[in-house]
C-alpha cells in the first residue's frame, strides 16, 4: 500500500457543501457529542496529522478515512480562524448534551419566577460561551466588550421571559409552556449580535475561492450573523415546541400523576431526542463557508478587490456557528 496522496483538499468539508444533504452529513459529524469524550492527547494527535498534511507531510500508514476523521476531530475542538482550542462547553459537539439539559429544565420549571430567572440566566451564560467560541474571524474582543455583551444579552432574555410569563397568566397552561421558547428566540436576536459585536465594528475576513484573504467586511459579518440567528432559532423550535405538547398530555395521565419526579428527566430526554436531529440539520441551513457577491461589499473593499483582481466576482467568509 502506497503513501496517502497529498492532493486531498481537507481545507473543505468531506461532503459537497452546495447541497443541504452534504451540509447535513458534515454537521452530523461536527456536532457528534462523542467528540467530547476525546482526550487532549487525541486532540493534539489529530491536530498534528492535519497540520502536517497541510504542510505536505502525510503521516506514514495513514488512510484517507483516518485523515478525514482527524480533520473532523480537529474541527470539533479548534477555532477555524484563530487555531485556538475551544473551551469544552463552547464546542458544537457540546450543543446536544448541554442544550437538552438546560432546555429540558427551562420547559419543566417555567411556573415560578425564581426558576425562570435562574434557567434563563444559565441558558444565556451558555449561549454567550458558545457564541464567543464560534465567532467568525480572528479579531480580538476586550473583556469590557465581552462583559457588556453578556450582561445586555442575559438581561434581555430574562426580561423577555418574565414579561411573557406575566402576559400568559390567564391563558391556558399549554400557552405558558411556550414562554421559554419565545424568550429563547428573542434572546438569540440579542445575544448573538452582542457577543459578536466586534465583527460588526471591524468586519470579518473575506477571501477568494482559493482562501487568499481579500480584506475585512462588515456587510459579510451582518449576513453571517443573520444566518446564525435563523439557524439557532430553528434549532430551538422542535426541542421547545414538541416536548411541551407531549408533556401537557402526559401530565394528565395517572402514570405521571403518581410519579411526578419523572417529569424532568422525561422532558430532558424528549428535548435531547429532538436536538440530536435539529442541531445538525439547522446548522446545515446555510453553508459554513458562505459567499457574498463582490458588488454587495463595502465600496472601499470592492474597489480594492477590483483593482487587484478584476476577475473576482464572489468573496467567501466563515459565517460562524
UniProtKB/TrEMBL annotation:
Q: So where does this one cross the membrane? A: 225-246, 266-286
User: Which cellular compartments is it found in?
Assistant: Mitochondrion membrane
Q: What are the UniProt keywords, alphabetically?
A: Amino-acid transport, Membrane, Mitochondrion, One-carbon metabolism, Transmembrane, Transmembrane helix, Transport
- On whether Mitochondrion is a keyword of this UniProt record, the answer is yes
MF term (GO), any = monoatomic ion transmembrane transporter activity
Name the major location: mitochondrion
* Membrane-protein topology: Multi-pass membrane protein
Q: Is the Transport keyword given for this protein?
A: yes
Instruction: Identify this protein by name.
Output: Sidoreflexin
Write down the species.
Cricetulus griseus (Chinese hamster)
**Mind giving the lineage of the organism this protein is from?**
Eukaryota, Metazoa, Chordata, Craniata, Vertebrata
Amino acid at each position: 500500500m502506497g503513501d496517502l496522496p497529498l492532493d486531498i483538499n481537507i481545507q473543505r468539508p468531506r461532503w459537497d457543501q452546495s447541497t443541504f444533504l452534504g451540509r447535513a452529513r458534515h454537521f452530523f459529524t461536527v456536532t457528534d457529542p462523542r467528540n467530547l469524550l476525546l482526550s487532549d492527547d487525541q486532540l493534539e494527535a489529530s491536530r498534528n496529522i492535519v497540520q502536517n498534511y497541510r504542510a505536505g507531510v502525510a503521516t506514514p500508514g495513514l488512510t484517507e478515512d483516518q485523515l478525514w476523521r482527524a480533520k473532523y476531530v480537529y474541527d470539533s475542538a479548534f477555532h477555524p480562524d484563530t487555531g485556538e482550542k475551544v473551551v469544552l462547553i463552547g464546542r458544537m459537539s457540546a450543543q446536544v448534551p448541554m442544550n437538552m439539559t438546560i432546555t429540558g429544565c427551562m420547559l419543566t420549571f417555567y411556573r415560578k419566577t425564581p426558576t425562570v430567572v435562574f434557567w434563563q440566566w444559565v441558558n444565556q451564560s451558555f449561549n454567550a460561551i458558545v457564541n464567543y467560541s464560534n465567532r467568525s474571524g480572528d479579531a480580538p474582543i476586550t473583556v469590557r466588550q465581552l462583559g457588556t455583551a453578556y450582561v445586555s444579552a442575559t438581561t434581555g432574555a430574562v426580561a423577555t421571559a418574565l414579561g411573557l410569563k406575566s402576559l400568559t397568566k390567564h391563558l391556558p397552561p399549554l400557552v405558558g409552556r411556550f414562554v421559554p421558547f419565545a424568550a429563547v428566540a428573542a434572546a438569540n436576536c440579542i445575544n448573538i449580535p452582542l457577543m459578536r459585536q466586534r465583527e460588526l465594528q471591524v468586519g470579518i475576513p473575506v477571501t477568494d475561492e482559493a482562501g487568499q484573504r481579500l480584506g475585512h467586511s462588515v456587510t459579510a459579518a451582518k449576513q453571517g450573523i443573520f444566518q446564525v440567528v435563523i439557524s439557532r432559532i430553528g434549532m430551538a423550535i422542535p426541542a421547545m415546541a414538541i416536548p411541551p405538547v407531549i408533556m401537557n398530555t402526559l401530565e394528565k395521565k395517572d402514570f405521571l400523576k403518581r410519579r411526578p419526579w419523572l417529569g424532568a428527566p422525561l422532558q430532558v430526554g424528549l428535548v435531547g431526542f429532538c436536538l440530536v436531529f435539529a442541531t445538525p440539520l439547522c446548522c446545515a441551513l446555510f453553508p459554513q463557508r458562505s459567499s457574498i457577491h463582490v458588488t454587495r461589499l463595502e465600496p472601499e473593499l470592492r474597489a480594492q478587490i477590483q483593482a487587484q483582481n478584476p476577475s473576482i466576482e464572489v468573496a467567501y467568509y466563515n459565517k460562524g456557528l
